[in-house]
Design a protein that fits this description.
heterodimer; A: alpha+beta; 2 helices; 4 strands; B: 73% helix; 1% strand
């Protein structure tokens, strides 16, 4: 799938993408020992919990499922 | 394609919200506040107010003296504590932490930091190698690995936030002329070591041990560029499997902790100049926090042992130039290049977008900007002073209090490293990633040693010339 900036179909809006810094520091043990998920270098990358891949939110794949906030 | 409701927190592109949601920026705002306050009090003839706030223990010989000194200045310690608590609490609350967790945890950190600071002021401390950074680290590790502190206390053990605040404050005590004079050399030396180490780890991982190239890249970034922060940045850039960052994190932590003790020990045995040791630590340590612990420990030794030439500032300045200027600021470039390689050469399926050069800015460690601005500001406002005025007036009344606040921030950081280093919680690492990374460490340490002690030694032993 090609990234489409018009309809914002990307990991950021996918229900499988998690990039909350508290979540990432729990999921990666030792992250907060010598680094931080609240730092600039992480930008806002996150974890795809469907594919267990850590990536930038600008990506998109065929398993994209839109997230609807409640 | 079905849409499902979810309560999942935060999956969004941050953009400029990072100005109040990222630790880097808060380190800048907090430090600027401290620096401007120090300058304001100095210019208005009220330097004593800042010196009161920036309290530190006096040298002591007996426990009675230490106790008397503390009780005599109890008010100052209370004010110092309140200021740190208020500044950090406001910022962490905005970043999303719970104050009900942060405040008690920070009280715990502060109380032990006072004890650690006092231990460092003992006139026999350096004789027994009780440098405050090492004491802080060892004490923290002892507490966290013997006692099980509640997990919520991690909220107050913000290693990176404290070290970034300390580094921006450090900028105010480092002449900008030094950055101009030694910065390019630091960049050249750091780049030689970083590229060599990255390629060593990457090829050891992929060719020698048959590991996935994304794991090789993630490990390489951790060992060569900037520890965990770089590993995480590159992991995101190359779309690493979930376990790869965890493996890299474990390797970085293990070797970073070893290096905190190993590098100063070897430097002392070889009587290395403080500036040379600082530069070597700058290429061999993986994280800013760990590196500052090692550099400051060695620098303090240099201040007290005639057999070690140089000063504490030589060690810290050399380390800062090498690590912050030579390595940290290039994380975005590494991430961009690796993302390009990953997208254009490694992708198996069409799931990638071509990375934008804007990555370099968004991933730039913003606290480094604060470091440069702080240095520029202080250099500019003190430029017209003659050497005598600088030494007798500016140093004790303006630079000194800022340096003390920097030391506080560093102690918070070093103690927090120990408190968060819980070996039982780290991810398991197989033999192949372990040896791929370790081969890189060996190459890194040897190459960094040669460059610091032979090739560029004249720079690192003459940093005071650029003042």
């Amino acid at each position: 799938m090609k990234f489409n900036s018009k309809n914002k179909k990307c990991c950021y809006t996918c229900k499988y993408f998690k990039n909350d810094p508290k979540f990432l520091e729990e999921v990666f043990p030792g992250y907060n020992v010598l680094s931080s998920a609240y730092g600039s270098t992480r930008k806002d990358d996150g974890l795809c919990i469907r594919k267990n891949v850590y990536l930038s939110g600008y990506n998109v794949c065929k398993d994209y499922t839109p997230k609807v906030s409640s | 394609m079905s849409a499902e409701r979810t309560n999942s927190p935060g999956s969004s592109h941050m953009g400029w919200k990072e100005l109040y949601l990222k630790e880097d920026w808060w380190a800048v705002w907090l430090s600027f506040l401290i620096i401007l306050a120090a300058y304001f009090f100095f210019k208005s003839g009220n330097a004593n107010i800042m010196k009161f706030i920036a309290i530190k223990p006096a040298k002591w010989h007996t426990l009675g003296q230490a106790f008397s000194n503390f009780t005599a200045h109890l008010g100052a310690y209370v004010v110092n504590f309140i200021i740190w608590l208020v500044l950090f609490s406001i910022s962490v609350s905005i970043m999303g932490f719970k104050l009900s967790e942060y405040i008690p945890s920070f009280i715990f950190v502060y109380i032990f930091s006072v004890i650690i600071f006092y231990i460092g002021a003992w006139d026999k401390a350096h004789h027994y190698n009780l440098e405050p950074p090492l004491v802080a680290l060892a004490l923290g590790m002892l507490i966290s690995n013997i006692f099980r502190l509640p997990k919520w206390m991690d909220t107050g053990f913000r290693v990176e936030y404290y070290i970034k605040t300390g580094i921006v404050l450090l900028g105010a005590t480092l002449p900008f002329t030094l950055i101009i004079w030694a910065g390019p050399v630091a960049f050249i030396q750091a780049t030689i070591v970083a590229v060599t180490t990255f390629l060593t780890i990457y090829f050891a991982a992929t060719k020698l041990f048959g590991l996935d190239r994304r794991l090789g890249a993630t490990l390489g970034a951790g060992g060569a560029v900037c520890g965990v922060s770089a590993s995480i940045a590159i992991a995101g850039a190359v779309k690493a499997k979930k376990e790869y960052p965890s493996i890299a994190i474990t390797m970085v932590i293990i070797w970073a902790i070893i290096m905190i003790f190993f590098l100063p020990l070897i430097s002392r045995a070889l009587h290395l100049h403080a500036g040379v040791a600082g530069a070597w630590i700058g290429t061999s340590e993986f994280a800013d926090a760990a590196g500052f612990a090692a550099a400051q420990a060695y620098g303090m030794l240099a201040e007290h042992l005639p057999s070690i030439p140089g000063t504490e500032e030589d060690a810290i300045w050399a380390f800062t130039l090498m690590k912050v200027v030579g390595r940290d600021i290039w994380i975005g470039v590494w991430a961009f290049v690796m993302a390009l390689i990953s997208t254009m050469k490694w992708e198996v399926e069409e799931s990638g977008v071509k990375p934008s050069p804007a990555e370099i800015w968004w991933r730039f460690p913003k606290f480094v900007l604060g470091f440069f601005v702080a240095s520029l500001f202080m250099t500019a406002v003190t430029a017209s002073a003659d050497l005598l005025t600088y030494k007798n007036v500016i140093k004790p009344n303006l630079v000194g209090p800022i340096k003390t606040m920097r030391t506080w921030s560093f102690i918070f950081c070093f103690f927090s490293i120990g408190l968060t280093t819980r070996f039982r919680e780290l991810a398991k690492v197989g033999a192949r990633p372990f040896w791929a990374f370790t081969i890189g460490v060996i190459v890194n340490v040897i190459l960094g040693f040669i460059l610091s002690t032979k090739v560029f030694v004249n720079y690192w032993t003459h940093l005071h010339m650029a003042k």
